[in-house]
Amino acid sequence: MTYQLTAPLLDACVLGIVRSEDSYGYTLTQKVRQVVDISESTLYPVLRRLQKVNYLRTYDAPYQGRNRRYYAITDEGRNMLEFYENEWNEYKDKIDGLIKGTGLVPSEGVMEEKD
């Protein structure tokens, strides 16, 4: 994709995935990669940061004789995700308006060029 994924947008993506179901790092990476080119080495610092600010919690569960670390969203994470969703919708609507030329408000005091 042409557009860059900023840190808050990546946070929102991760929180949205984990809201749907608890996930471990590899599956989170795979789900984000369906939309954006991202490496596991990029995602794990995001997961640690989201955990540090109490938006995610972790727990271990056995899988084929080993433990997997799962990430689950917290109430604070749900609140932040709701904030991100509202911000995203407002931003997306404004960008859509600019791209389509329908969201432009005429500038005051700007004179149009005449031929």
From TrEMBL:
It comes from the Bacteria. This is PadR family transcriptional regulator, regulatory protein PadR. Residues 14-82 form the Transcription regulator PadR N-terminal domain.
